[in-house]
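Mods, move this if it's the wrong board.
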Amino acid sequence: MNEIQTGQGFPIGATITEDGVNFCLFSKNAQGVDLLLFDNPGDIAPAQVITLNPRQNKTYHYWHVLIPGLKAGQLY
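Not the wrong board. Structure tokens:
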């Protein structure tokens, strides 16, 4: 997987792009956000945890990140 990117503050949800998957969520009160990626539906622990940086991955109340190389079907 390539290095994560800032991503876009729209649309809300997980959006598949040519480059990977853009994740965006709204939270008025969150002080931090972790994106957990799983390999299998029954996994208890995530395969990867991506901690979003509020200076790079937050616009107003929208947290966003682009994960290059992710494809449809990724569990999160």
